[in-house]
Design brief:
By secondary structure, this protein is mostly helical. It folds into 2 domains: 202 residues, MFS general substrate transporter like domains (Growth Hormone, Chain: A), CATH 1.20.1250; 209 residues, Up-down Bundle (Growth Hormone, Chain: A). 77% of the residues lie in helices and 0% in strands. Helix 3 crosses helix 6.
Length: 425
């Protein structure tokens, strides 16, 4: 037997076994919570449309307001890092946020079908969603640093998000045909069901105390971030990439009121888009190591414009599948450079705050773009075609800013890192 064969058959080391166990737990956390959100969100949109009788603009505004805590995610991170809850920095934050999310979904199905009641409950519930995500992210970083597996765990996280779209889309479409109590209960139960698993297998924590040094450090890093011309330039570019009037909510109204698609089929279309997005992510993994970011961003703008124009052919179930595949690919190729820009633009030593700022710009702009797109959809008499042209042409405006991207963002950073690693070896 060769030495390689002996090594392959040798039992895993305790460290490797523990990393595998924690990786599985984190993967389950990302997957189950995101499937739960998928299952609850699509039926909720139909409730707002068909039972509360909201116009497209109001549906988009509902989620823009409801996700307000997501725009301030950095504060949740600072709290979980510096202010222990019941003596721990992770365990009890996860416990209480999962309970609040699970019960929040169930409560949402029982409150009166009105804007004020549903928005109030959803907004409060989503705070717990943000804390769950932030706390899981904190555990992921700790495990990644401990075992030098940050890259693998980050890739796993993104993979679980896409897997949740693949799984949750069809289930959400089917459950949307039932009373909202059913999908809300299922989504809530998935969050509650995670509690025993996470509490049993998460790493044990030593008793934690309030870290008062964190807040002055956050203030210092915030000053560094604001003074960074590179980061501010990248934030402006991110805004332009996301600012085109969105098709998200108008498309739901077009699918149901004009094309008369059934709810299960609408959920299935999300699966096609997610699968295409996963394929595009693999392509970007290799492309970002070979091409200047300025060219990648230019390409992503053009391809995103073409993806928007594809909706001109959105006329039947067959063309809807084809457009969903194409749009899923182009949306991923437009989104991935934003993450790339965000990572490259953050000042050294302020990575978490800088990256969170970039993601906040992206999230807020996307939410407002959906509101504006929904408003234009109403102005155009719920005719999707003019909105498609507005979305596509306004996307191209961002091309004018590409030549002005800071030089620090356009270096072939991934290639340099690979070369440096090879040289060091």
């Amino acid at each position: 037997m060769s030495q390689a064969d002996s090594a392959a058959e040798a039992p895993p080391t305790p460290a490797r076994a523990e990393l595998t166990r924690l990786s599985i737990i984190l993967a389950m956390g990302w997957l189950v919570t995101n499937v739960g959100l998928q299952i609850g969100t699509l039926p909720l949109k139909f409730v707002l449309k068909d039972e509360v009788h909201l116009a497209p603009e109001r549906v988009a505004l509902f989620f823009a307001i409801g996700h307000a805590s997501n725009y301030l995610k950095t504060l949740a991170g600072v709290l979980t890092d510096s202010v222990p809850l019941c003596g721990t920095r992770r365990r009890h934050y996860l416990l209480f946020s999962l309970i609040a999310t699970g019960l929040g979904w169930m409560l949402l199905s029982f409150v009166p079908r009105s804007w004020n009641w549903m928005l109030g409950v959803y907004t409060v519930m989503y705070i717990s969603v943000v804390f769950t995500s932030t706390t899981l992210g904190g555990v992921m970083v700790e495990v990644g640093n401990r075992f030098r597996a940050a890259g693998r765990l980050t890739a796993q996280r993104i993979g679980m998000f896409k897997a949740a779209e693949l799984i949750g889309g069809p289930i959400a479409g089917i459950l949307a045909t039932l009373p909202f109590t059913v999908p809300a209960t299922v989504g809530g139960a998935l969050h509650l069901g995670l509690i025993p698993l996470l509490l049993r297998f998460l790493p044990k924590e030593p008793p934690a105390r309030v870290n008062r040094d964190v807040w002055p450090e956050v203030a210092r890093q915030a000053r560094v971030v604001v003074k960074s011309r590179t980061l501010m330039g990248a934030a402006g570019m991110t805004f332009l990439l996301a600012a085109a009037p969105g098709l998200n909510t108008p498309l739901l109204f077009y699918q149901t009121d004009v094309l008369h698609f059934q709810k299960p089929f609408i959920g299935l279309l999300a699966t096609f888009g997610a699968a295409a997005g996963m394929a595009a992510s693999v392509f970007y993994f290799y492309a970002c190591r070979r091409f200047d970011l300025r060219w990648i961003v230019s390409f992503s703008i053009v391809i995103h414009c073409l993806g928007a124009l594809g909706y001109l052919f959105y006329k039947s179930p067959q063309t809807a599948i084809a457009v969903s595949l194409f749009s899923g690919m182009t949306t991923a190729l437009a989104t991935l450079p934003v993450y790339d820009i965000s990572a490259r633009a953050t000042p050294k030593g302020s990575e978490a705050i800088g990256y969170a700022l970039m993601m906040s710009v992206w999230n807020i702009t996307n939410a407002m773009a959906d509101v504006v797109g929904s408003r234009l959809f109403e102005v155009f008499g719920r005719n999707l075609t003019p909105l498609i042209w507005v979305d596509a042409l306004s996307t191209l405006v961002a091309l004018a800013a590409v030549p002005f991207m800071p030089a620090a963002l356009t270096t072939r950073e991934d290639q340099h890192v690979a070369e440096d690693a090879t040289a060091a070896a």
